């Protein structure tokens, strides 16, 4: 079926028609380009600021960077070493990887159960999980902190935050993956069952290999969610030497207030990972976000 | 984004004619449960039990170990809604407090995000550099709210030699503003920064929906002499009502949960003028040492979000699921 996209592009006409169309469409071009520029300027400003010398930042706006030509990598050196952001960057990674793999694994197993093995109260339990998808984190902060503090001081290491992120990622994982698994060809799974394959081997040999796009979409969504999270890390990682970038950067703001060379470099270190993920895996990334829209 | 009917349940209910079959289905059921069990245990311990604990705590005065110190009944809620000017202040005009700020967010953030996102989705389809426009607008979606905060701290800097917004005002011969230092501007400054970060999502969802619209219907309307505005208003808009409602719900949840960007940019200030519900919860619980009071705020958040939970479950039950 022809879509709007094609219809708009395929319409052509005589030269005068095209001229009229060009004139009437000029405001559209101006509007679109203006908005795109407005949307780019704040990020470009930050990027340029991160490469300028501190003494110049205080005297002239980042838009002078083109004429002053005072670029330096010094800000990144200071922010990585002197303010400990390099260490915090590694912490972010240490938190994010297990907090992505855990809900992905548990979620995929549960989703397989919900999709392909009938058991009592299956649909009721699944609806419960759908409902849990948007429970605000705020209702868990205090009791979990109490739990972690009283049982093995989980908030001093990383187990607390890993488990908390796992719990909050799971409903979405189960929801997304179950909805994908259920679309897999039934014949394939029934045939494997006939051949005597166990559920676990059906899961490992058939379901997982066929579901890479869905697994990737959730994995990327969860990875960025955890990497970008501030609130949970603020509460559940109490040891300053273990805190991720999102928690350490606000301290930087209160300590260095107006020193935008450091703040900008720190913000870019934080942004670089999502940006790489975005440009490298754009398709999965957008799919994951669209799918995650039912969450937040 | 499209809606698709939910496929029929994976396997038909086992017919219970023979004993063997029944036994087999029981064993099967147990196996299925084993797959689901780890997830359910994690959810029960780290999500369901805590929610129960917080709801209970909202009716108590908490102690420093977050225990139940003293039963208060609905006192926390009464205090919040009638006697806490930082949460709800109806005595002045315009009214203030965190709840009213969230209402500002609700109105301005949702309507502008929808308007800009829909406008971009409709217009970007018509130009050759669609991809460029979309990428430019979508990229902020990937960035942490903490980084968005720093980006906009720089834009809003009161110093016209640092902040681009005040530089533009000065260049145009206007007075510079303290965007984040002025209580009547600060909320809108924060809201716009967050719109900047969210519009990309609205645009992508609606753009995907628009591209899925049947072209023959639109073409027929054109042939019948409808102009572009009429086509948008009478045909596209009604056909887009489902994706628009999905996006609106997403924006609504964002408004109720907004925290990071305020924590980074203003800390709820100046004074308490940019606090929102989620910020109040954090502040009362972890800075003011009032976990019971903070729990009451969290319960209010839960109540505000509950209708969306019901809606999600209903939508799922009616076998139409948003993919």
The total count of helices of chain B amounts to 13
Question: CATH topology of the largest domain in chain A, what is it called?
Answer: MetI-like fold
Strand runs of chain B, count = 4
CA-based gyration radius of chain A: 25 Å
How many domains is the backbone of chain A divided into? 2
Which spans of chain A of ≥5 residues are poorly predicted at pLDDT below 50? none
Provide the helix percentage of chain A: over 70%
User: SS-based structural class of chain A?
Assistant: mainly alpha
Shape of chain A: flat
Strand order of the largest sheet of chain B: 1-4
Low-confidence stretches of chain B: 1-17
The end-to-end distance of chain A, rounded to whole angstroms, is 33 Å
Largest sheet of chain A: none
Approximate shape of chain B: flat
Would you identify the CATH architecture of the largest domain in chain A?
Orthogonal Bundle
* Sheet having the most strands of chain B: 2 strands, antiparallel
CATH superfamily of the largest domain in chain B: MetI-like
The class by helix and strand makeup of chain B works out as mainly alpha
Mean pLDDT over the residues of chain B: 87
Q: Quickly name the level 1 CATH class of the largest domain in chain A.
A: Mainly Alpha
